[in-house]
Design brief:
The complex is a heterodimer of chains A (520) and B (367). By secondary structure, chain A is α/β, with parallel strands linked by helices. Chain A has 3 domains: 61 residues, no CATH class; 253 residues, 3-Layer(aba) Sandwich (Aspartate Aminotransferase, domain 2), CATH 3.40.640.10; 114 residues, Aspartate Aminotransferase, domain 1, CATH 3.90.1150.10. Chain A is 36% helix and 10% strand. Chain A has 17 helices and 11 strands. In chain A, the strands form 3 sheets. A 7-stranded mixed beta sheet of chain A has the order 1-7-6-5-4-2-3, sandwiched between helices. A two-stranded antiparallel ribbon of chain A has the order 8-9. Chain A has a two-stranded antiparallel sheet with strand order 10-11. In chain A, helix 4 packs antiparallel against helix 11, helix 7 packs across helix 8 and helix 11 crosses helix 14. In chain A, 44% of the residues are buried. Chain B has 367 residues and is of the alpha/beta class. Chain B has 2 domains: 197 residues, Rossmann fold, CATH 3.40.50; 157 residues. Helix content of chain B is 32%, strand content 26%. Chain B contains 14 helices and 16 strands. In chain B, strand 9 and strand 10 form a beta hairpin. Chain B is globular and about 65 Å long. Classes of the chains: A alpha/beta (520), B alpha/beta (367). Strand 3 of chain A pairs parallel with strand 16 of chain B.
Chain lengths: 520, 367
């Protein structure tokens, strides 16, 4: 028998590559996947469907859906699914700040259970006690983790949660009759911390990092004033540096009457360690799809669970889930103080399945387990950090010699200068080994950046394999730079000519636009 | 086919090592003192890192101005300008002018601020330019940080992975400089490629170009412009966008005064400014950092002198700058050099630099 002999370093990988058309191109007139049954004869005799629908609700032209059989639909989407590099097929370390962890499949099964899927958000409260109880309890767990006093699960993502926080700030000062038009944030906080308040019309003031990577406190002091409506910050920022002086920042804002809003998208190293309220924040949000494993990105819909202190509860979106004296749960639509509320953030009460999965995850771990999650996430990251920094071509700006929290933004600037191979080249080459790799948000304040976040779920062997692959690719940059620069070679598509993407004139965002542009 | 024009100022940098503070009009003296030319070596370092294929052809001048090096490195080239003896500033100018006729894609030059000035006079904003820093003074923003970074920029340009932005050419008046008077002047602008990766953002509808960024800054300034106040508008392409927004005539490399959104006077001197300030009760200053190192005062805007600044409150100084300019200064302060320690002291501190519409960045200003 032949002995199995594998390289531990590189995983031989070639992505499936189909020349798969757009689904609309596959349409065959008259072909059907489902034959809709005729209306029952008795009903047909009683009603004419055309009479039941008002004229303005009737389409003038038929809906242009692709006409396909079931097997062809299945084949199409199976092929597309093979052309993605999903969380379940690669070692998810490369997407720093995204907190892509392994999400237990059993939690997916809960969400797919018909007890869940057959519910409708418009059902009477009394008939959906189970999910209301779950969301009510999850709210309490979130309060315990953050120190806040009420959560809403309406925002369906981190940026929407930041938008909700900006709206809360606006409502709060409208209520107080104060005109404040400035929001302070830092350049290493997530871009939405500036973008969402800007959309609300606020003036955005950025604070730069000092030589240690902390937001420059002196600069901050000069920026805070009676015009400051709020301070939005992520901590740790994406550099992995935790600002231990953050309470001094929040105190200063409070002295001037402003509010403090905590972007907790980077909370995976902080569960059971620090609390937003204790650091002086008035509100915060957690991404259930990141830290609470529900899962992230294209794995499904998201939730930016947003919590506030007692003073701000009246500004939250409606409804809020509450409990009656008899122990039953209900959706509190009390609008008696609705002049304060920011109103609806989205339809119904958020994505119930996401809340269910987060609840299941928290319950499976308990308080000790959550703390363990953070300890292991920080340990994994600092193991990786040490190993990465042993390579002379890899560096990480700020707080030299100190540890990071749950992620690190590295730089390979010296390596790029030496080889001409950029972080973008390496990113594409890593795809050839079936691994994600993320550089940074734009602009690149850290030159030639790599942002890696191992979370608590990969094993030591996983981390070693990721680093070994990365170092193998970096070494290729010395020996055969062309190979790296022209990557990917075994991925689903060749290297993109980015210039074409930059010009919005070239963008075709829908089949309708394509048809229009080509006179079809 | 990509055409690269190459000009080396072989004497650039000669004066530095022998303490002559520049080499303008003094090359013979520098050589006599033992000054060593560095420009050719630096150009070689840059070109070694450039991905040259059969699609690239060089145009250059004879001898040390480029031909010798290209021959030595075995590159495909055409010599379009001949010079028998040692080259001078005029040769840089003439050769660069010929490049326009040859329709070259990219002009690569090695030298200092003086060389950049000669090239600026010849090609204006007609072509893309990359400067290899080889002179004594390299304050202009047109230079790459070092020869290796110049190779990276050239490669990116050849691969179509860069955008162009207008960068300042500034130079000291060397005769005055040798007598201890620092009088840097803004001479004009060259189009320099920059790594668009620094700013591109695929989530945005389109990447914010330098021009659009300048326009947003102008909207912010103009929306908040007050009547009854004299505005001193410093030189630069960012402040030009403000004047364009107001439909006013602008002096790109000089200072303009406006009042009630109308021109009070263009291209003013220090005296003009002081006279105007005597008439009006309140004055605001709008300036943008000039050059690669981020000088707010003291480089290219000496008309806004120490005397002028001393009559203005710190709160009435508005600094405007685009993201591309500030991204390079991430852990560096903006600088001032008014010539007076007392005035520098007064101006030092933190400023809310206007970087976009309703967008500020708190920057430290120091001397």
């Amino acid at each position: 028998m032949k002995k199995i002999n594998r390289s531990n370093i590189l995983e031989n990988f070639h992505q499936a590559k189909w020349d798969e058309p757009v689904v609309f191109e596959l349409s065959q007139p008259g072909e059907r996947g489902i034959l809709v049954p005729e209306v029952d004869k008795n009903i047909k005799e009683m009603f004419d469907i055309n009479d039941l629908l008002p004229d303005n609700l009737k389409r003038k032209t038929p809906l242009e859906l692709p006409e396909m059989s079931q097997s062809r639909v299945l084949r199409h989407f199976m092929r597309l699914s093979q052309e993605t590099l999903g969380a379940d097929v690669n070692i998810e370390i490369g997407q720093g700040t995204c907190t892509v962890k392994y999400s237990p499949k059993i939690n997916e099964m809960f969400a797919r259970n018909e007890n869940m899927t057959e519910l409708h958000p418009l059902q009477d409260d009394e008939t959906v006690q189970g999910i209301l109880e779950i969301m009510y309890k999850l709210d309490y767990y979130m309060r315990e983790i953050s120190g806040m006093e009420q959560f809403t699960f309406q925002p369906s993502g981190g940026s929407q949660a930041i938008m909700a926080m900006a709206s809360l700030v606006e409502s709060y000062f409208n209520d107080k009759g104060e005109e404040r038009d400035e929001i302070i944030t830092t350049i290493y906080s997530h871009p939405s911390d500036a973008a969402a308040p800007a959309l609300k019309g606020y003036k955005i003031i950025y604070i730069q990092p000092d030589e240690n990577g902390y937001p420059d406190y002196e600069a901050f002091k000069s920026a805070v004033s009676e015009k400051t409506a709020a301070f939005f910050i992520a901590n740790p920022e994406d550099t992995g540096v935790y600002n231990t002086r953050v309470k001094e920042f929040t105190e200063l804002v409070h002295e001037k009457g402003g509010l403090c809003c905590y972007d907790q998208a980077n909370a995976n190293g902080l569960l059971g360690v620090t609390r937003a309220k204790d650091a002086g924040f008035d509100m915060c949000f957690f991404n259930l799809h990141k830290t609470f494993s529900t899962p992230h990105g294209c794995g499904g819909p998201a939730t930016g669970a947003t919590g506030v202190t007692k003073e701000l509860i009246k500004y939250l979106p409606k409804p809020i889930i509450d409990k009656k004296e008899d122990g039953t749960y209900y959706l509190d639509y009390d609008f008696s103080d609705s002049k304060y509320s920011v109103g609806k953030i989205r339809s119904f009460n958020g994505v119930a399945q996401v809340a269910l999965k987060a609840y299941a995850w928290v319950m499976s771990l308990g308080a000790e387990g959550l703390y363990e999650v953070s300890k292991v996430a920080v340990l994994n990251n600092n193991y990786m950090f040490k190993k990465m920094m042993d390579n002379k071509w890899i560096d990480a700006p700020y707080i030299k010699g100190k540890q990071r929290i749950e992620q690190v933004r590295y730089t390979i600037e010296k390596y790029t200068e030496e080889t001409g191979v950029t972080t973008g080249d390496i990113q594409r080459r890593m795809m050839d080994f079936g691994l994600h790799y993320w550089a940074s948000h734009h602009p690149y304040y850290v030159p030639e950046p790599i942002t890696l976040e191992p979370t608590e779920t990969p094993s030591r062997a996983d981390i070693d394999q990721y680093i070994d692959t990365l170092l193998y690719v970096m070494n290729e940059g010395f020996e055969n730079p062309e190979k790296v620069k022209t990557a990917p070679h075994s991925s689903v598509c060749h290297q993109l000519i980015e210039d074409v993407l930059d010009d919005s004139e070239n963008w075709i965002l829908s089949w309708k636009i394509y048809k229009k542009q080509n006179n079809l | 086919m990509k055409k690269i024009g190459l000009i080396i100022n072989p004497i650039a940098g000669l004066g530095g090592s022998v303490g002559l503070k520049g080499t303008d009009n003094l090359s013979e003296k520098a050589i006599a003192l033992g000054g060593k030319p560095k420009a050719i070596e630096k150009t070689m370092n840059t070109l070694m890192g450039v991905d040259i294929d059969e699609d690239v052809v060089f145009y250059t001048a004879s001898g040390e101005m480029g031909e010798s090096l290209l021959k030595k490195m075995n590159f495909d080239y055409e010599c379009i300008y001949s010079k028998d003896d040692r080259s001078t500033a005029v040769d840089t100018y003439k050769c660069a002018k010929l490049f326009i006729e040859k329709n070259i894609d990219l002009l690569v030059f090695a030298g200092g601020d003086g060389t950049a000035r000669d090239i600026c006079n010849a090609v204006d904003e007609n072509m893309a330019v990359v400067g290899i820093p080889a002179g004594v003074k390299v304050q202009s923003a047109v230079f790459a940080k070092n020869p290796k970074k110049a190779s990276n920029l050239i490669n990116k340009f050849l691969n179509g992975k860069s955008l162009l932005k207008k960068c300042e050419v500034i130079d000291l008046d060397e005769d005055m400089y040798r007598n201890g008077v620092i009088q840097p002047k803004l001479y004009g602008y060259l189009n320099v490629p920059y790594d668009k990766k620094l700013l591109q953002n695929k989530k945005a509808r389109s990447p914010l170009s330098e021009e659009n960024n300048q326009r947003l800054i102008a909207y912010d300034i103009c929306d908040n412009m007050e009547n009854g106040i004299l505005y001193i508008i410093g030189p630069g392409s960012t402040t030009k966008a403000i004047m364009d927004n107001l439909n006013l005539k602008n002096t790109l490399i000089g200072v303009d005064l406006i009042f009630n959104k109308k021109i009070y006077k263009n291209d003013v001197s220090e005296k003009d400014i002081l006279d105007a300030m005597d008439i009006y009760e309140k004055t605001y200053v709008i300036v943008t950092p000039i050059g690669g190192q981020g000088y707010v005062f003291g480089r290219g805007n000496q008309q806004i002198s120490e005397k002028v600044i001393n009559k203005i409150e710190k709160e009435d100084i508005f600094i405007v700058a685009t993201e591309t300019k500030l991204v390079k200064l991430i852990n560096e302060p903006l600088l001032i050099d008014t010539g007076s320690e007392e005035t520098n002291e007064k101006l030092k501190g933190y400023y809310k630099v206007i970087t976009g519409y309703k967008e500020r960045r708190v920057m430290k200003v120091s001397d």
